[in-house]
Design a protein that fits this description.
The chain is α/β, with parallel strands linked by helices. Helix content is about 60%, strand content about 10%. It has helices spanning about 15-20, 25-35, 40-45, 50-65, 80-85, 100-110, 115-120, 120-140, 150-160, and strands spanning about 5, 25, 70, 90-95, 140-145. The chain starts with a strand and ends with a helix. Adenosine-5'-triphosphate binds near residues 9, 12, 70 and 105. It catalyses: shikimate + ATP = 3-phosphoshikimate + ADP + H(+).
Amino acid sequence: MTIFLIGFMGSGKSTVANLLATDFIDMDAVIVDNIGMPISVYFERYGEPAFRQVESDVLKTLASSGQIVSTGGGVVSSKENRRILSESTSQVIYLKSNFSDLYARIMADKENVRPLFLEHTKEALEVIYESRKALYEMVATKTVLVTDKCPEDIVKEIQL
Ligand SMILES: Nc1ncnc2c1ncn2[C@@H]1O[C@H](COP(=O)(O)OP(=O)(O)OP(=O)(O)O)[C@@H](O)[C@H]1O
Ligand SMILES: O=C(O)C1=C[C@@H](O)[C@@H](O)[C@H](O)C1
Ligand SMILES: [Mg+2]
């Protein structure tokens, strides 16, 4: 059974996926492999709709992978991606958090500086977060509140 982890940037998808299975698949990494350039460069050259199309193609392939998959933070923003997630037989786990905790984590994470974070003000990022909140809930088969929980406890909740 494929398990997709979804949630906004910084919600802990990669951290939790790695605890669930060290051979987990990072969807952004698969996309970077396919397009042969950093996602930020692809966005700049071809625009977001073209990126979402690539993302949909990768998502479809991964739905039958039987692996743990950490998705891109914006995977729910395209209708096609939401359809693929809703119609697949995979588990879709939403790691839910409030914006201020996410922002603090993204700011503190010096190992992974997200292009979206560099390109937007805090207010603009919050607008994106607000616009996606309901969409994550809509496609999730399970929502796990991650506030004040360590990754190990989040894993336990996922496995309940
Ligand atoms: N439950 C947690 N408690 C505290 N810190 C956490 C927790 N989960 C993840 N972190 C930290 O938050 C930061 C973001 O985590 P991670 O990279 O796993 O998020 P992500 O959802 O994969 O982000 P992105 O969508 O940008 O790939 C990292 O520095 C990580 O160590
Ligand atoms: O939140 C988003 O829209 C994105 C998040 C990243 O994981 C990447 O998938 C890409 O940079 C878009
Ligand atoms: Mg990640």
